[in-house]
Amino acid sequence: MSATSTAAVASPASFGAKMLEMRDNEETMNVGKKWTVEEDIKLAQEIAENKTYEEIAKEHKRTANSIKLRVISHIIYPKIKDNLDVNMEEVALEYNVDTSQLIRQINKIIIKGEPKPTQKEYLPTNKDILDYLRKLDSKLDEINSKLDNLEYLR
């Protein structure tokens, strides 16, 4: 394989590399970072003010797509979770998001909230039980010692 053909086959940047690249950019420096309560409150206000996703993204230093996903998960879903029979096209139109993206994200949220079938109930091992009993015994000794001190002081 020649050097020119190797360059043509170069793999695209990884997700992590793209995220680091976006964090180096002043306009998207909060990409991938945890949202703060203040940001969520500000986002709700900005949506109520009918700001565009691009305007909001610049304010929050995130991408417009991440703003849309946050709106779906933290504004739209809480409003419709008890009535999923709502007209998704109308909801998508109201919040200016793509209907298929809205439905896809709502389904992800619902699936994520369901317990996984492979999750087993926690059953403590004998060692766990023994450790717990030792802690209880230690606490009882501590309590008895304090009671003895109280009796002695009388």
Q: What keyword list fits this structure?
A:
mainly alpha; 2 domains; disordered N terminus; SANT/Myb
Question: What can you see in these coordinates?
Answer:
By secondary structure, the chain is mainly α. It folds into two domains: 15-113, no CATH class; 120-153. It has eight helices and no strands. Helix 3 crosses helix 5 (64-80), helix 4 (53-60) packs across helix 5 (64-80) and helix 5 packs across helix 7 (99-113). The radius of gyration is 27 Å and the shape is elongated. The termini are far apart.
Summarize this structure briefly.
This protein is about 70% helix and about 0% strand. It contains eight helices and no strands. With about 150 residues, the chain is an all-alpha fold.
